[in-house]
């Protein structure tokens, strides 16, 4: 039962929340572009079937997750989550693998973990936080792209939309820094488990 609850929490953090953020930032972009006049929006959630709204929400969530996976792959390949500084490496006696090497072995190693290896759930939380943050980068990016497209179409409230786009850029910058931090914590947590098993 505990594993089912843990899985549900992971799905909620990594898929549902970023999907909801995507819906929110895109909706807000349209509201700002229309000067707050909801009657002129191209779609009206109040008058749309619950099935359609749910389908749109699920699609946004799934696509956010898919784009997050692609983003994660690129950022791992290009090592954009940062690397250890030389002075940090000098303080360590030995390191069997770096963060990126550890991450590449994440899924096979997770399959081998016993419940006692992550008894307090630190690794599970680090993984969920990392993927949630990474996927939220996609959400803010989608909101920013939507804002730029609406600006190009000459909306009724360009000043508000520029401020909104600027806020999304700030959110992207903060979220990226958090993603780097979460990646480091994930790498360190996984390395700790790996070293205990060696």
Features:
198 residues; mainly alpha; elongated; 76% helix; 7 helices
Query: What radius of gyration results from the CA coordinates?
Result: 20 Å
Instruction: Bin the strand percentage.
Output: under 5%
Structural class of the secondary structure composition? mainly alpha
Can you count the beta strands?
Answer: 0
Q: Which segments are poorly predicted (pLDDT under 50) over 5 or more consecutive residues?
A: 87-94
- Series of secondary-structure elements, N-terminal to C-terminal: HHHHHHH
Mean pLDDT: 76
Largest beta sheet, briefly?
A: none
Helix content, binned percent: over 70%
Total tally of structural domains:
1
The best one-word shape is: elongated
Terminal CA distance reads: 29 Å
Oligomer: single chain
Number of helices: 7
What would you note in describing this structure?
Helix 2 (50-77) packs across helix 6. This protein has one domain. The chain contains 7 helices and no strands. The radius of gyration is 20 Å and the shape is elongated. Mean pLDDT is 76; it is low at 87-94. It has 198 residues and is mainly alpha-helical. Keywords: Membrane, Transmembrane, Transmembrane helix. The chain crosses the membrane at residues 7-31, 51-71, 137-155, 161-180.
Q: In short, what is this structure?
A:
Keywords: Membrane, Transmembrane, Transmembrane helix. 76% of the residues lie in helices and 0% in strands.
């Amino acid at each position: 039962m505990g594993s089912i609850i843990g899985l549900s929490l992971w799905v909620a953090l990594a898929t549902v929340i970023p999907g909801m953020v995507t819906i929110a930032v895109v909706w807000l972009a349209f509201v700002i572009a229309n000067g707050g006049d909801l009657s002129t929006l191209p779609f009206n959630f109040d008058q749309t079937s619950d099935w359609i709204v749910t389908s749109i929400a699920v699609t946004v969530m799934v696509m956010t997750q898919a784009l997050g996976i692609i983003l994660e792959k690129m950022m791992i390949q290009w090592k954009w989550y940062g690397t250890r500084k030389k002075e940090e490496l000098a303080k360590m006696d030995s390191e069997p693998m770096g963060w990126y090497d550890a991450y590449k072995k994440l899924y096979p190693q997770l399959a081998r973990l016993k419940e006692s290896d992550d008894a307090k759930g630190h690794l599970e939380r680090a993984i969920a936080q990392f993927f949630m943050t990474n996927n939220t980068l996609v959400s803010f990016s989608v909101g920013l792209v939507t804002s730029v497209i609406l600006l190009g179409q000459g909306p009724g409230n360009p000043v508000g939309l520029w401020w909104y786009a600027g806020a999304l850029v700030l959110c992207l910058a903060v979220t990226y820094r958090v993603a780097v931090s979460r990646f480091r914590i994930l790498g360190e947590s996984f390395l700790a488990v790996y070293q205990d098993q060696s």
